[in-house]
Amino acid sequence: QVRLVESGGGLVQAGGSLRLSCAASGRTFSSYTVGWFRPAPGKEREFVAAITWGGRSIYYADSVKGRFTISRDNANDMVYLQMNSLKPEDTAVYYCAADLRIGDVGDDYAYWGQGTQVTVSS
Q1: What DSSP character marks residue 122?
Q2: What pLDDT is attached to residue 53?
Q3: Tell me: the pLDDT tens digits for 52-108?
Q4: Are 38 and 48 a contacting pair, CB within 8 Å?
Q5: 105: number of Cβ within 10 Å
Q6: In angstroms, rounded to a whole number, what is the distance separating the alpha carbons of residues 122 and 116?
Q7: What is the mean pLDDT of the chain?
Q8: Residue 71 in contact with residue 82, Cβ under 8 Å?
Q9: How far apart are CA 21 and CA 5, in angstroms?
């Protein structure tokens, strides 16, 4: 079992930045791929970014590429999502998720956090 807790959400103006954190506890977190997802129109969970267990492979959705950066600190069981140049359309609840597999679909992940709200005003 892996428990995930997100933090760092908030209200920011367009063009601003936020850094989301995902704190993990439970099984050996460093073995897990961690992804970030958000709801989107017509989708329950839209893929945002993912990072494999060693950080060697990183994936981004086209909509956030060049603006968001995912990273992890396995020594402290943390994963981060640095979000720059935020747009109103980035407004959503952001969830981190973990699994031993690598994927860009919500069903690929077994463990989920409760989410943190990000609101970008225009």
Answers
A1: -
A2: 87
A3: 988 889 999 999 999 999 999 999 999 999 999 999 999 999 999 999 988 888 888
A4: yes
A5: 10
A6: 20
A7: 94
A8: yes
A9: 8
